[in-house]
Amino acid sequence: MLSILGSGPTDRDGNNPLGLTAASYRLLAEELAAKEVTTVHIDKRGMFASARAIPDAAAVTIGDYAHDVRAWVEAARHQTGAKCV
After folding, report:
1. 0.85 exceeded by the pTM?
2. Hey, which residues does 16 pair with through a beta bridge?
3. Total domain count, the chain
4. What is the tens place of the pLDDT at every residue in 41-74?
5. Assign residue 18 a region: left if phi > 0, alpha if psi is -120 to 50, beta otherwise?
6. Which domain holds residue 58?
7. Helix (H) or strand (E) holding 40
8. Does residue 61 fall inside a structural domain?
9. What is the dihedral of CA 6, 21, 2, 62, to 10 degrees?
């Protein structure tokens, strides 16, 4: 499973600097792992751990995000052999 985050400054764990600290995506990944479901949850390009991927996170386009999702799907398929991501 590939987690694709929504809009705004939400990190790969589901937290954001505006006060949301529930770690919902991390908790979901942990529960799925317990059921032997592989998950990938990423920071959006230019955000959090991916901050150095681009000088200005505000310059990232929807097309850039779509490209990133396609690349993560292919990487997950390659690493796991899964046909469905």
Report:
1. no
2. 20
3. 1
4. 899 999 999 999 999 999 999 999 999 999 999 9
5. alpha
6. 2-80
7. strand 40-41
8. yes
9. 20
